[in-house]
From TrEMBL:
Residues 69-197 form the AAA+ ATPase domain. GO terms for cellular component: DNA replication factor C complex; nucleus. GO terms for molecular function: ATP binding; ATP hydrolysis activity. Signal peptide: none annotated. Pfam families: AAA (PF00004). Heterotetramer of subunits RFC2, RFC3, RFC4 and RFC5 that can form a complex with RFC1. InterPro entries: AAA+_ATPase, ATPase_AAA_core, DNA_Rep/Repair_Clamp_Loader, P-loop_NTPase, RFC_lid. This is Replication factor C subunit 5. Belongs to the activator 1 small subunits family. One of its GO terms (biological process) is DNA repair. Keywords: ATP-binding, DNA replication, Nucleotide-binding. The keyword Transferase does not apply. The keyword ATP-binding applies.
């Protein structure tokens, strides 16, 4: 009889729930071996239509961007719900092959200080945008982990100074750590934890693509354990697959 290993045995500490967290995904140039790619990256939604759940938010952002009315954005909500993925997919759609020139990816927990970051934004915003067809596209400053910034640094951002040709997309988990002055300059979108149906759909997609043999019970337990955090669901699936689902294989 096959030995069953409970999902409760999984040591969460061993699971990197935020490998890279999506930082500098656009700008990263390395192309690692497919086998070593974490599934969270391998299965990161590439286009807006790949983003599971949050269809109303994604379609609203898409509509605003397509009609040249993109506001400054503030995307907030718990980890692994698609905030960074949505902005990256939007950037790809807006800029295509020009994405590296048109997007400045910053991480708010960057320890170089706000003056350096501001200078970077200033330099980025002041260079000429490339024309896309008839209209000149606005550039995008992607500021991840905005809730890690001190209040002073948030005040120092002065996002309206660059509004003529630049939009900010702020991303954070805890919106209460973003100062009201900054919040009010952005259109806010809350990314709720994914519901079980969407986690299940997405996991089934990965299970099929990776040709895994996952029993229904294991899948259900995984959905329950991930609690709407898709990154966590994928990481557990990848790390634990040999232990959970092939307990007697040589791979263990
Ligand atoms: N809505 C979603 N649809 C499809 N895949 C998703 C979704 N949300 C998360 N994922 C998966 O989880 C990974 C992490 O998602 P993402 O980086 O977008 O999360 P996040 O909301 O920015 O989290 P954090 O707050 O921790 O930065 C993605 O690479 C993708 O594989
Ligand atoms: Mg993120």
């Amino acid at each position: 009889m096959a030995e069953t290993i409970s999902l409760m045995d999984i040591d969460d500490d061993k699971i990197h729930t935020k490998p890279n967290k999506g930082k500098n995904v656009i700008l990263s140039s390395s192309n690692p071996e497919p086998k070593s790619v974490p599934w969270v990256e391998k299965f990161r939604p590439q286009s807006l239509s790949d983003v599971a759940a949050h269809r109303d938010i994604v379609e609203t952002i898409d509509r605003l961007a397509s009609s040249n009315r993109l506001p400054h954005l503030l995307l907030y909500g718990p980890p692994g719900t698609g905030k960074t993925s949505t902005i990256l997919a939007l950037a790809r759609k807006l800029y295509g092959s020009q994405v590296n020139n048109m997007v400045l990816e910053l991480n708010a927990s960057d320890d170089r200080g706000i003056d350096v970051v501001r200078q970077q934004i200033q330099d980025f915003a002041s260079t000429q945008s490339i024309s896309f067809g008839a209209k000149s596209a606005v550039k995008l400053v992607l500021l991840d982990e905005a809730d890690a910034m001190t209040k002073d640094a948030q005040f120092a951002l002065l996002i309206e100074k660059y509004t003529r040709n630049t939009r900010f997309a702020l991303i954070c988990n805890n919106v209460n750590k973003v100062i009201p002055a900054l919040q009010s300059r952005c259109t806010r979108f809350r990314f709720a934890p994914l519901d079980a149906v969407h986690v299940s759909e997405r996991l089934r997609h990965v299970i099929e693509a990776e040709q895994l043999d996952v029993p229904e019970g294991g899948l259900k337990a995984l959905i329950r354990l991930s609690n709407g955090d898709m990154r966590k669901a994928l990481n557990i699936l990848q790390v634990q697959t040999p232990h959970l689902f092939y307990p007697h294989s040589d791979y263990v």
